[in-house]
Design goal:
single chain, 382 residues, alpha/beta, 2 domains, eight-stranded mixed β-sheet, 16 strands, 19% strand, binds ligand PMT, CoaB-like_sf, Phosphopantothenate-cysteine ligase, ligase
Length: 382
Amino acid sequence: MTDTTSAQQAESHYFTREPPPKDLKTNTTLAREFITRHADQGHRVVLVTSGGTTVPLETQTVRYIDNFSAGTRGATSAEYFLENGYAVIFLHRQFSLLPYSRHYSHNTRSFLDFMKEENGKVVVDEQHQDQMLTVLRQYTRVKRENRLLILSYVTITEYLWNLREVAQLMRPLGPNAIFYLAAAVSDFFVPQDRMVEHKIQSNEEFHQGTDNADGDSTKPPAARTEGKSLIIDLEPVPKFLKQLVDGWAPEAMIVSFKLETDPSLLVTKSKYALNKYSHHLVIGNLLATRKWEVVFVSMLDGEKWIRVPTSRRTKSLSGMPSLVGLADHHTKKDVEAEESIATRKGIPQGEPSIEIESLIIPEIESLHTKLIEQARTGAETS
Ligand code: PMT
């Protein structure tokens, strides 16, 4: 069996077994209208996926497995795509960060701290006026131009249904479309037919039987209690990148992310993904340095690091500066030298920090332009 046939079979098995989300029709209606309008005007459209995906353990879900992603990469990237003229479909995990409002929600402070009362009216505090005015202007412009469509999901299955439907709707955009897959997608899940209906009971006196929600007791539920322990026996989620590249969006530019925690694996696994799926670009990032450096791995440009200079990095509580450069065997020494100069000099005061997405998106735009030109030349010569 070829890779393509087995990916098709895995797709058909998955979507037959896992029912579509209730709001799928609403989402596809909105997406169709948005895509048609931008396709008619010859605009470039990017689907940005963002945030984590949950894996519910019960049909009436009380417990679920989740991951760390807050949606910073996706929400920030969406803003820079909009700034670069793209129309953006923002498919995000419900309640994760949104473009523009992220400046006031991803904070240890409440958004109310940005406000004050003046003459019986709520106004923005003086010190936040300039930044909020800039953000508000960007947001209202994008809304006025109808260039941002926000869709949401919660679970891995909702994510995949939405991704597949929107990808198919985007086909008429041809090479003008980009898929920018920044969501942190679960690799394992509980299939619907192996899920219990009700909350899993921790008290042994109230343990449920071995029936799944559909009443079938031939296979044990994937999440169940045995004695005092909770046993979770997850199944693999098929890799949908293959189907996206070969079937759902064959002409679009596809950008996937590769997340690792071990620096020694990042470049190798990013290259492996590029070879396996034969798409356009893998952006490798390490959990601990993802806000300061990423590696682009592509057929067009090979391996290329994008790094925010030490003095311009955004703050990150979970970030580990000592790991910057460690996954890049060519330049670890350069990075160390830069680090030590910066440490000796102290980080310059008053220099605005740079978000790494402000460096990533222009690079992608120029790769996209090359791919559109290649597609045009190919179409003219054939
Ligand atoms: O939200 P932030 O806190 O800012 O974090 C951003 C991020 C680290 C989540 C983001 O930059 C990132 O790396 N996202 C991709 C994470 C991920 O799913 O990596 P992976 O190595 O598990 O998967 C690699 C690729 O395979 C992904 O593009 C994913 O879309 C795809 N995949 C994954 C699972 C699956 N079943 N099918 C897939 O096609």
